[in-house]
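Quick one, probably user error.
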């Protein structure tokens, strides 16, 4: 008689490895489950969105970035946050958070955040790094958004190297 059981999905394997331990890194879970690190990271992001995992940012040790730690919450997830798929697999019902845990922005929303910040600070010029610190978003993404605003003549690049942006006069 053929085996009719479905093997556990990558997300289910990661969740099973995460449950019952105080915390783990994505690399440690990848080693334990035999899955690739990127697969484990995607599974953890989905579990986090479903309320089945919690990310604890690793922080820094001097100039070195420490890995994020992941833990399973002690309480059962809210039924409103997850839904079952066939056969009994979990999937998030809301968009996943970004890598830093912040909610993902829709199309054009980062440009609006940059524009608003520059309008709130007329006369001041900001580097992508300074805008990143102020807005809590990626400096690369902010740089792209600022360049789009420059092309639309809403923002000007006040200095080319290092790049600095300010609201157009």
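Nope, works fine. Designed sequence:
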């Amino acid at each position: 008689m053929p085996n009719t059981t479905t093997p556990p999905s990558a997300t289910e394997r990661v969740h099973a490895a995460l449950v019952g331990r105080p915390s783990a890194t994505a690399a440690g879970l990848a080693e334990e489950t035999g899955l690739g690190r990127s697969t484990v990271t995607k599974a953890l992001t989905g579990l986090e969105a479903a309320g089945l995992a919690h990310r604890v940012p690793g922080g820094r040790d001097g100039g070195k970035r420490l890995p994020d730690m992941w833990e399973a919450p002690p309480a059962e997830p809210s039924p409103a946050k997850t839904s079952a798929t066939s056969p009994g697999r979990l999937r998030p019902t809301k968009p996943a958070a970004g890598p830093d845990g912040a909610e993902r922005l829709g199309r054009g929303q980062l440009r609006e955040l940059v524009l608003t910040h520059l309008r709130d600070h007329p006369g001041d010029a900001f580097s992508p790094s300074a805008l990143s610190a102020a807005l809590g978003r990626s400096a690369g993404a902010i740089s792209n958004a600022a360049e789009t605003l420059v092309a639309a003549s809403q923002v000007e690049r006040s200095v080319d190297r290092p790049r600095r942006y300010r609201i157009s006069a």
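The domain at 109-167 is CATH 1.10.10.10 (Arc Repressor Mutant, subunit A).
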